[in-house]
Please model this.
Amino acid sequence: MKTYGVSRSTTASPERVWRVWSDPNNWSRWNSGIKAAQVDGPLGNGVKGKMTTNRDTTHDVTFSNVVEGRGFTMTMDGPPGATFVFTCEITPDGTGSTIAQNVAISGPMAILLGPMAKQMSKHFIPVLDDLSRTAEAVP
Model:
């Protein structure tokens, strides 16, 4: 499973980044690629929800590998025979953080859809820029 992603530095502390990123119900306030997201309870392993992109496609999502202040994995249904696996990471970096988002595709169709993951990862640049700006503004 090939992974594609980007990272960036922010002056926001890992705690500030976590406060913003760990609240999927508010992702649409700062992430222009998300029209709406709703999860059933606080972010944690096994938490499920729905996410609607700005292209009006709604996906079932499930969270795993949740480590408070450090990141999480979100799986999302894709085309038949494929599942998108997003890894979101926060690493302390001096007084700020490095934030990263990666995507891989699993399932029988993954090999054919690999180029889609590479394209998707390019859209993470503005997402991480918006996350950074939002987290830097958190008191």
